[in-house]
Design brief:
The chain has 3 helices and 3 strands; from the N terminus they run H-E-H-E-E-H. By secondary structure, the chain is of the alpha+beta class. The protein has one domain: Rossmann fold (3-Layer(aba) Sandwich), CATH 3.40.50.800. It has a 3-stranded antiparallel beta sheet with strand order 1-2-3. Strand 2 and strand 3 form a beta hairpin. The radius of gyration is 11 Å and the shape is globular. Pfam families: HGTP_anticodon.
Length: 58
């Protein structure tokens, strides 16, 4: 589905965060980490650090 529909599905699932891996993120070796339960801004995180960053937030 579209990006918007995927984000709505993630929100409805009860997830606290969405990980965004688009073409740009893959090319740059990053991932977007978007909080779904508060108004914090999306973060760009190195893919290699993603698990550690998420673990620290949970």
């Amino acid at each position: 589905g579209s990006f918007k529909s995927q984000m709505k599905k993630a929100d409805r699932s009860g997830a606290r965060f969405a990980v965004i891996l688009g073409e740009n993120e893959i090319a740059q070796g990053t991932a977007g980490l978007k909080p779904l339960r508060d108004d914090q801004p999306q973060q760009e995180v190195a893919q290699a650090d993603l698990a550690a960053v998420l673990a620290g937030l949970l």
